Amino acid sequence: MKVELENLTKRWGNVVGADSMNLDVKDAEFVAFLGPSGCGKTTTLLMVAGIYKPTAGFIRFDGQVVNHVAPKDRNIGMVFQSYALYPHMNVFQNISYPLKLKKIPKDEMQKRAQRVADMMGIGHLMDRRPAQLSGGQQQRVALGRALVKEPQLLLFDEPLSNLDARLRLSMRSEIKRLQMGLGITSVYVTHDQVEAMTMADRVAVMKDGKLQAYSTPDELYDRPRTLFIAGFVGNPPMNFLEMEVVRENGDYHARREGFDVVIPSDRGEKAAGKGNVILGIRPEDITISDEGTPAEVFIVESLGRDDLINMHIGEASIHVLADPVLGLKMGQNVRLDFNTHKVQFFDPTTEKSLLWA
Amino acid sequence: MAEAVMGRKVIRGQKPPSRWAQFKATMGAWGFMGPATVLVLVFFFLPVVILFVISLTDLSSSNFSDPLTFVGLNNYVRLFRDRFFPKILGNTFFYVAVTLSCFNVGMALLLALLTTHINRRAGFFFRLIWLLPRITPSVIYILMWRRISHQPPFGLINQLLAPFGVEPQYWLFEQPWLFVILVNGFVGASFGLILFSSAIEAIPRDLITAAKVDGASTWQSIRDIVLPMIRWPLLFVTTYQTLSLLTSFEYILLLTEGGPGLYTTEVWALTAYKRALKTYFGHNQWGYGAAWGFVLVIIGIAMSIIYLRVFRFNELVQEPKIDVL
Amino acid sequence: MTTATFESGSQSGVKRFLGRTLPYVLLVLSISPIVLGYAWLIIATFSYRTEGLFPIDAAGNIGGWTLSNWSFLTDPAIWRVTLNSFVLAVGMVIGVGFVSSMAAYSLSRMNFAGRKGFLSLTLLLHAFPSVTLLIAIFFVLNFLSKIPAIGAWFGYNTLGGVALVMISLDLPLGIWLMKGFFDNLSWDMERAALIDGASRFRVWWEIIIPLIKPGLAALAIFNFLSGWSAFLIPFTFTVGSKVANLPVYMRQMISDTAPTNWNMIAAVGMFQLIPVLIFFIFTQEMLLSVYAGGSKGGT
Ligand SMILES: Nc1ncnc2c1ncn2[C@@H]1O[C@H](COP(=O)(O)OP(=O)(O)OP(=O)(O)O)[C@@H](O)[C@H]1O
Ligand SMILES: [Mg+2]
Description:
CATH architecture of the largest domain in chain C: Orthogonal Bundle
Largest sheet of chain A: 6 strands, mixed
Helix content of chain A: 25-40%
Radius of gyration of chain A: 25 Å
CATH topology of the largest domain in chain A: Rossmann fold
Order of helices and strands of chain A: EEEHEEEHHHEHEHEEHHEEEHEEEEEEE
Shape of chain A: elongated
Distance between the termini of chain A: 31 Å
Strand content of chain A: 35-45%
Number of strands of chain A: 20
Largest interface: B-C, 125 and 114 residues
Structural class of chain C: mainly alpha
CATH superfamily of the largest domain in chain C: MetI-like
Bound molecules: adenosine-5'-triphosphate, magnesium ion
Strand order of the largest sheet of chain C: 1-2
Order of helices and strands of chain C: HHEEHHHHHHHHHHHH
CATH topology of the largest domain in chain C: MetI-like fold
CATH class of the largest domain in chain A: Alpha Beta
CATH class of the largest domain in chain C: Mainly Alpha
Radius of gyration of chain C: 24 Å
Number of domains of chain A: 2
Number of strands of chain C: 2
Structural class of chain A: alpha+beta
Number of helices of chain A: 9
CATH architecture of the largest domain in chain A: 3-Layer(aba) Sandwich
Oligomer: heterotrimer
Helix content of chain C: over 70%
């Protein structure tokens, strides 16, 4: 099923939940809503579910406006962060509840519930109450309950954030596999960007109720259109340095005190002659080498596989990923090599990208 | 509303949200409210109106079948000119003030301090015993008190005080107010007791320990720490119980019926009730009784509004987090 | 935990001993009238007559225990009256339980036109001196009596009428209490049920009600006790003994018969107290919490 949001807005008095959201989800597509806490992800999702009434704007399912269609008539399944299982019902009753409400005959209900439960790997827990299940099992029950009525749209509201890291990882691939297998259009809310980047076909980045960007994970990562996206997507976050880009002898130089690198002309020409611009470069695109820009190690933070190192270049401060075997120490002087094919440029006042706008 | 306006703008094959559907949804909600609404209308709203209307007539059990005659504010004039009006007013003030300060707040606070001071189980036990009068059916409860205060040779007080050489007497008859206040106070105190003791138990122990370390005496730590910390429950119990006492008369009706003698322990609410519904001679002056009742209703409404304001009950109300009905 | 909360550090042994025991002495003294009253009731129930706390026989000596006060149990009238009391109590439990949990549900969880108004009204009625309306309710019941089908069941001098009045007057407290329970339930669960395909009514009945059973139970105890012990309203709106409940029946025994048999009345009282005491003993914690929960406005 195709889902379209048009100028979708939700307000409570002065509080803005979602502000003029425009986006579409293609049939069988997996879309993630990504954004910091309080940015309106849940609000938008609940409007799609029919729980909240939009203050303005439209929601279309396959071209039909469904603003006034009751949640139960929208043929959707939803999984909540808190699982939202019915504590007084056992697993079977929880999973089969949507079927019971549809007045499906008993034996068929039994069969379908069992099939979904088996698919989720909880077929042997049918008599247990939610309180007798682990978090992961509970989330599987919730997923089973959402899937059992074979919905045309699946909504997830941070379904994995109550699970421990290891379980989150396995559930992540499981959900993705299920969704691909069943081909159900899905909207997945999360504030975990790794989740969004790895699972989704397209990611909608939100901030303060507004849609900031909507594109594939690769595009968000490689071609951020705004300063916010560039800073928000990617971990550790992108470094930003204010500088000037000038053309000299046919080369484009990005310059500030203690810093002068040559930029490939396809990128440089867009930033040149614009006065002060913001250069962005991800920590993984900077390597420590024998020659290049001199910098001084300030703080070394171990991330396990890598060290995250805070360096000073003159007055500026940047983060770099480095191999722990280098054994860098505070105060040590090194040289940095910038992968200039990956630099970004932003206008400091409009905060828009100079490369991809 | 923006929503309604947008809704009517028909877009690509979508029928506008029918007003009928919205109406039906609202009706669905009122379906839940229905029974409560009907009962509130019939047994709160209607009675207030009826009470006022009757208070403007001379309706009584002797002219019940005649057409209503309106007498304007005569009943109110008569009320204020009543020979016993000052007496009843005074009684009401006395009753409310003394019961409230000595028992519903005073005793409740004292008991709360004592029961939180001692062992937890024991404190719970005493609180529970104090709850007993409240859940004892009023008729039985009064029966007990009558016996306690009865004339010789039946009364319990006489028997207990005999060894101390106290002259036996009919206590209820000699000291009617004492017993009216005791009887109501023993029921009233448990309300404050429960609220105060849970508030006191919620005070962080560190605070009191700190005061002790600073060398505060028991009395000082109560005055400087406990009382300020339970300010809200204190204020709440005081306002709420003032209203309850002002309008309560069941126990007085059962204990003394306002006697002994003329209007000795008669309070406002009892007067209204007796005038209108239970007179000795079977002559019920509904109109006049309603006037007494209506004045009390006005006081009650005024006080309820004050008490809602003071305690900002509206702020306790949260908004539903589901829009659809 | 025997350490006293407010005890100060440096005190002499005598003072400390006083600090320990004085509260107990005061508390025991404070409950003495209650204990005395109950003691008398129990003794009186099993004796011909009492002087003070002593049972007295015909000769005026201490003694004379008897079961004769309980002879009222063979009188069919008492059983009808008991049944009336029971019906009234159960009526209160069901009536207030149903009506207030429905109203409280929609007030707490539904966004409908008029919600705010009704909510403020409930709060207002909560503190409203409803007994002052009895005079006017008398007329309402009289009017209901005249309505053909309803009158016979819910008019003046009917058990239904009394029950209706009592239910109504208890509603504000019931709604407010239940609303407190609903307010604390998870929104996500209710959203999930709506998405699963349930109507609001089914959500209420199949999901919400099972979850607030403790709240309903507390409310039920409260209402059973107030229905069972009801005096003022049955007394005011019934005449004669056909629809009397136990408290009214007791009251009639006191005023009507010239030489009142106090000991038999005590026995009737004891009889009536049995269910109250059962609740008292088995639901202590709940009772205290009901009254504390009703705090935002009990009686
Ligand atoms: N029912 C409501 N009434 C009033 N304001 C609300 C309501 N629900 C959400 N809001 C506000 O709307 C904004 C968006 O909330 P929302 O729950 O959609 O955020 P979110 O992106 O899901 O955040 P999180 O990651 O913390 O779940 C917040 O400022 C929130 O306070
Ligand atoms: Mg959220």
